[in-house]
Amino acid sequence: MGSVIEAVARFPRAPLLTWATPLELQPRLSERLGIKLLVKRDDLTGLAFGGNKVRQLEFYFGKAQAASADTVLITGAVQSNYVRVAAAAAARFGMACHIQLEERVPDVDAVYRTSGNVLLDHLLGATLHSYPVGEDEEGADRRLAEIAADLTSQGKRPYIIPLGANHPPLGALGYIRCAAELLEQMHGADRLVLGSGSGHTHAGLLFGLRALGWKGPVTGICVRRAATLQAQRVESLCRRIAEMLEVANPVTPDDIDLRDDVLSPGYGRLNDAVADAMRDSARLDGLLLDPVYTARAMAGLFALAADGRVAAGSTVIFLHTGGLPAIFGYARDLHLKVMGRAPI
Ligand SMILES: *Cc1c(COP(=O)(O)O)cnc(C)c1O
Questions:
Q1: Is 80 a catalytic residue?
Q2: What pLDDT does 1 receive?
Q3: What is the pTM assigned to this prediction?
Q4: Which of 58-72, 117-131, 154-168 has the lowest mean pLDDT?
Q5: Which of 42, 50, 69, 172 is deepest in the core (most CB within 10 A)?
């Protein structure tokens, strides 16, 4: 049983988390939903506004340090939390950081391009590049490799954190560690709900929980792709985690539970259900959610509770994966769709 944790411990890790994040009851949201809602506060992972990428990047920076890299390269959406935390981690470890920002969200405004995470990328001292499309992972990785080749010719030692699916899913290891942390905190939980984007968080947590013997449902709420596509992605990630760790894969296809009923109109764009979840979480329990991931995941949980797929009275753990700086990048949409009026 301990073997999966031992297997993870064999991978180099550059520590960024200094504490276990709290599991916190949300009393008024619980009442509203008719369940006991506990939030695993991974928005409080500490570094530079935190979020789930802190746990993931411990392993990429571990690898980068093992390779004696002095520069890290990474791709993300303009309001990416991943690249913001990478820039902060690079600063912490005395490395340079090159960020490639993709055009993943249509119809954005100047605030989206300058505030929130992008503002922090600049503040953290990263060098920014842009990539003209948002659905071309292999192309973005090739472009990053070209930038890395340039850096090498200048005498630098670059390390690329890849975007594409054909790489060892090191980031998922951070969520296998989180599964062990969570099992110390959660007693009698019936279900876990989280947003599923690249799938590293979902796959790592599910893999870890199953490997450590927890059998409850883990429901992923799609934030980027339809459920059937995302299920293949999570399944393949679990297989690759098992290969990478050289342990048996404890995850069966039945374990992979994905819902995409709140996904439209697509990645990084609000709909009414997402706006409602964001407003209610803020106004009932003072719980801030981000517009891209956690408000959508919470909207998914609201939908599950509303139609009885999550049983009344059950105990649900919601993973808060962070993303809070994006709130500021989405000021226009939040004024219009969450607060319901243009800013004065
Ligand atoms: C990246 C991100 C996710 C999705 O995590 P994956 O591991 O990519 O699935 C969820 N929430 C926030 C706030 C994120 O930044």
A1: yes
A2: 47
A3: 0.97
A4: 154-168
A5: 172
Tokens of 13: 């890790």
CATH 3.40.50.1100 fits 54-161, yes or no: yes
Tell how far the Cα of 291 is from the centroid of ligand 1, in angstroms: 12
- Matching fold, domains 2-51+168-339 and 54-161: yes
Q: Whose CA is nearest to atom 13 of ligand 1?
A: 323
Whole-Å CA distances, 47 to 82, 171, 325: 12, 16, 13
Q: Where are the domains of the chain?
A: 2-51+168-339, 54-161
Ligand 1: distance of its center to the CA of 152 in Å?
Answer: 30
**Which of 321, 283, 324 lies closest to 300, judged by CA?**
321
Res. 153 pLDDT band, cuts 50 70 90: very high
Q: What is the per-residue pLDDT for 163?
A: 86
Is the beta carbon of 115 within 6 A of some atom in ligand 1?
A: no
The Cα 317–Cα 296 span in angstroms is 15
Ligand 1 atom closest to the Cα of residue 202 is 9
